[in-house]
Amino acid sequence: MFGIFVRRFASALPIILIVSLMTFSLMHFIPGDPAAAMAGLSATPDMIIQLRHDLGLDEPFLTQLFTWYSGLLHGNLGRSILMGKPVMEVMLFRLPVTVALSAYALVITLVIGLVAGVFAALRHNSWVDQAAMVFSMLGISLPNFWLGLLMIIIFGVWLGWLPTGGYVAFSDDPVGWLRTSTMPAVSLALLQVGLLARITRSTMLEVLRQDYIRTARAKGLKWRVVVVKHALVNALIPITTVVGIIVSLSVSGSVVTESLFSIPGVGQLLTQGVLNRDYPLVQGGLLIVTTLLVFVNVLVDVSYALLDPRVRHENR
Amino acid sequence: MSLLEVRNLTTAFQTGRGEINAIEDVSFSVEPGEILGIVGESGSGKSVTALTIMGLLPRPPARVAQGSVWFDGQELTGLAETRMERIRGKGISMVFQEPMTSLNPVLSIGEQVMETVRAHERVGPAEQRRRAIEMLDRVGIPSAAKRMGDFPHQLSGGQRQRVMLAIGLACRPRLLIADEPTTALDVTIQAQVLDLMMDLRDELGMAIIIITHNMGVIAETADRVLVMYAGRIVEQAPVQTVFDAPAHPYTRGLLGCVPTLEQDTRRLLAIPGSLPEPGLRPEGCRFAPRCELAIEACRAGLPPLESLAAGHDVACIRA
Ligand SMILES: Nc1ncnc2c1ncn2[C@@H]1O[C@H](COP(=O)(O)OP(=O)(O)OP(=O)(O)O)[C@@H](O)[C@H]1O
Ligand SMILES: [Mg+2]
Which of A278, B232, B255, B288 meets the CB 3.0–4.6 Å disulfide criterion with B294? Predict the structure, then answer.
């Protein structure tokens, strides 16, 4: 089991390399000068040239690329130009915020998406099914900042139940975390709930038609047992693939959501990094996020594929 | 009183072309310990008959349009699903025709037998296990105790069909419906599974309905035979009578295609033409277009199923 995981993760390493190359090139070839941004409006051209030299930005592209990768080999991601601190340190400080938010959104997604999908499949073509599918289509089509804004207006401004923004760490105050994170998590979950509900529904419909479901019923098992133990467990195998994608969506969605709700997470940090041409921060930050996402996707894939004994035996 | 009594059963399907009767006016009975064979070409309504008895057809599109199914003094067609669950697997079991896809791929075979016991009897895990091993052993799975943790994909087709049989027999049902239990298996395995079913009938005293399109299987196993054509029963007789003195031209046609176990007679070449689709059935006798003996009167109206001799019914005006 651990062996398969290591193998799969290793085969995903090129993805991480490609992503880091792409971010590196993009950051360097789009216009904008971090030195100018740092030095401020009153800086003379000489000061800016000096700063570029100090930051190593006047080196040729390939030299910079080489320097960055060799730093990486020593576990050094460089220093953020904007914050003046090591990228690793900044990221480690912000990452838990985004991870907690994504995890919350994932829990909401799994509970609502799976339940809605299963019920829609069981009540195939009824009003329950149609309502669930209309709502999931809405969830997929509506931009998540729109729902975020709507919630801020209704629950934050009109009703005053929840704060309109800001963040309290879970370790400081769990209730405060729940109060500040619920609206962002719900707006993040919107798209994913829609996706998961639709995929769960179609997979369940497919599984419920299988011969072994008829066998389970012919044994005299209760319908509830047939649905959960026989149908859902089999449906989870294909549904799994989507869970990895959902986690990735959560993280990319957090860019917008964190800005909207003023949450100091990775999404907000990287947005600032891009706007200020903070090369090391964006490169290092994206590398960490990509690695993490690849890791999660491989983990989810492998662990759920192992639900299937056919795969389990193949990989022994 | 019969163990199972099916009376005037009609099962209809909602389709794009309106409602069609997959089976029509089907009546028969099964006595305790008896083996009843049901034969007929593909599409004649054998599986629909079995699934209607079991209450396993999806509703909609299926619907019992008419008739009743009496099992052990209880009417099944109108029974609530929760009551029906208690009968399936315990009173009546069913073994399906596709051993490769009829087992759940993610559960061990042991669990699939044990859960049947668990569904119907209040026994502890150790006893469930003992019962499952006993059944797997009984149906001929070698070193059953060790194979309990195996998954379906680790077994051959014949072994899977044995596991299906073990599941069906786990609670010692009074009636076993076996829908083409051997079609997917090769010849030697076929014969073994059939022998096994007969042994178990003697041992457990259960009745069996064996569905097949193979006259060889009928000759080998059945006490009494039901011949179906295009959703209706056309002949019903003791097995000896069917082979010695078949009355319906269709039955004779079936016998024309050498009844050996070895042959897969899904396509019955001895009878020219093919079974009409449910929506395109002819007026009058449904077999008339393929029948050498057909006369004008045959096309005028459906021939009723009438008694020819004691225990021998036939639906043919020319018989
Ligand atoms: N779900 C369904 N919807 C519509 N019609 C159906 C459905 N299931 C069965 N039928 C119809 O019922 C008729 C009888 O089918 P059935 O499966 O009982 O045949 P069979 O005798 O078991 O054939 P086989 O030897 O191929 O198993 C067929 O003509 C088929 O068109
Ligand atoms: Mg059939």
Answer: B288
Ligand 1 lined by B23 (C-beta under 6 Å) = no
User: How much is the pLDDT for B56?
Assistant: 93
Give the C-alpha distances (Å, rounded to integers) separating A56 from A35, A36, A142, A277, A282: 10, 14, 44, 14, 16
Print the domain residue range for A229.
Answer: 87-275
Q: Tell me which DSSP letter residue B79 carries.
A: -
Say whether residue B273 is in contact with chain A using an 8 A CB cutoff: no
* B169: closest CA of chain A, how far (Å): 10
**Cα separation of A29 and A38, whole Å?**
19
B278 close to ligand 1 (CB < 6 Angstrom) = yes
Residue in chain B lying closest to A230 (CA)? B104
Ligand nearest to the CA of B44: 1
Q: Angle at which helices A87-122 and A233-260 pack, to 10 degrees?
A: 130
pLDDT-derived band of residue A309, with 50, 70 and 90 as boundaries? confident
Which residues in chain B have Cβ-Cβ distances shorter than 8 Å to A215?
96, 102-104, 164, 167
Ligand 1: which of B48, B54, B102, B210 to mutate, judged by most atoms within 8 Å of the beta carbon? Answer: B48
What is the tens place of the pLDDT at every residue in A143-163?
A: 878 888 888 888 878 888 888
The nearest CA of chain A is from the CA of B7 a distance in Å of 22
Residue B268 above 50 pLDDT?
no
Homologous superfamily (CATH) of B1-87+178-188+212-257+269-319 is P-loop containing nucleotide triphosphate hydrolases (3.40.50.300)
B127-178 pLDDT, tens digit per residue, is 999 999 998 988 888 898 999 999 999 998 888 988 999 999 889 899 999 9
Whether residue A115 lies inside any domain: the answer is yes
**DSSP helix/strand/coil, A4:** helix
* pTM of this structure: 0.83
How far apart CA B42 and CA B271 sit, in angstroms, is: 13
| A102 within a domain of the structure (yes/no) | yes
Query: How far is residue A127's CA from residue A259's CA, in Å, rounded to a whole number?
Result: 37
Which CATH number belongs to the domain containing residue A223 in this structure?
1.10.3720.10
Question: How do the domains of chain B map onto residue ranges?
Answer: 1-87+178-188+212-257+269-319, 92-172
Q: How far, in Å, CA of A306 to CA of A300, rounded?
A: 10
